[in-house]
Amino acid sequence: MTSRIFKALIVKTVCLITSILLLASCKYEAVDEVASSPSNTTLEETNTINFDLPMCDGECSCDEMQIEFNDTGSLLAGDYPEGNFPNCNGQSGFLQDCDVGADIEQSNDDGHAGFSFKKLDTNGNTSDNNMLPHACVMDNVSGLIWEVKTFPGAGDLQDASHTYSYRDDNYPAFSTTNGGECDRECDSQSYLARLNQAALCGFNDWRLPSKIELQELVNYNTFTPAIDVNYFPHTKSSFYWTNSLDVDDEGSIWAVDFSVGRVAGGVSSTTRHIRAVRGQNRLINRFSAPTEAEQLTTNRRLFATQQRCNSIEVNTAPSHRYKQDSEGNVLDTLTGLIWQKCVVGLSGDNCEQGQPEKLNWQQAFEAANDLNDTNANTNPWRLPSIKELQQNIELACEEPPLNPFAFKNIPFGEVWSSTPSPRNDNASYQYQYQNSIIFYSNRDSEHYVHLVRNCSTF
Prior knowledge:
The chain is 14% helix and 16% strand. It is globular and about 60 Å long. The longest helix has 19 residues, at 4-22. The strands form 7 sheets. Strands 3-4-5-9 form a 4-stranded antiparallel β-sheet, with no helix packed on it. The protein has a 4-stranded antiparallel β-sheet with strand order 11-12-13-20, with no helix packed on it. It has a domain at 4-66 and 284-453. It starts with a helix and ends in a 5-residue tail after the last strand. The chain is α+β, with helices and mostly antiparallel strands. It holds the Pfam family Lcl_C. Keywords: Signal. Residues 136-278, 329-453 form the Lcl C-terminal domain.
């Protein structure tokens, strides 16, 4: 692993190269290993930004919510320290992933537990969901249309076994040409050009999905592959490229694993599969850019002493995405979720008091129950699902990958999700608040806890 100081120099170099090639500059400075302490700069000295989020008009409500996302599909209830109940029946005694969200509706016949899909024929027309084969799939939740692969060994353009290096000529430092194994021109840019030329399902605007979009397809109730194979046959139990750049590592791009639903970065020369998508990226251009004051490293260091941000990636979590209630809890107007402003163990206006607590999975649920015992809100605090954690991400930043004015003094390390692993019944998924890696660990491991609750409907 490249040292943090060396990586900071790399980021500055990449910014300079990108500026020359794209006639644009990096919005944020790279931060070296020894970051300035918040105590060195006071709010009065900067006097450049209002660090308080706008208040909700009364109680923060679901009226603010802008986007509906796919749920995890998990129907499992994890036990401690090991074991999964096959159905969500409250046996664990805690509010788990399977108790909340769209996947509690199991009666739908167009996808597993809250997923909703429609098969499309070669002309892009909707058809009977029992039709086989089909060329594309519409996600009725996101509105996105996804390609469907042909069987491994077919030898055609969409052969499911083909792999590709990542390439985007807009980002040469993140690109490798023709580095995969396929019929010809085995990199992502060449593949998309060929797919658009072929006008799959009648469309010529196919692209790579973002890491959030691609993770939406993951079904965390199953594994190898972790997807609904009725709609996405021939899916390989391995990593698929996204178009999200890993802004803190030179040449690294995010990928989603459809074996168990991991999310991790990899250098562009790594061979990955591709599942192309078309339709509006619902995160791009939804919010205006952060203000110049918000982009200043000196301001961000007040609450995120080592955060690294880079303008080569789109901003997904500017401050005007968020509001707060009278207790300082943070409403995400994109998802409608309300987050505790501090992780468990921290308190104060800026989460500067106390120490963040590391708890095992059982203790994490108990922390939510303890808070609910003293809180009369009808929507209880709970552990977030693994998808809810990623939906809150700031793609342009790492360490942490969050907005530091909404979530102040976030500790580095893993935070627990409420999503149990279907493959390892002694493990549950975790999200890394250092650089947004998704994996799972044993339930007796100790991680940070960041609680969430649903918004209220009026």
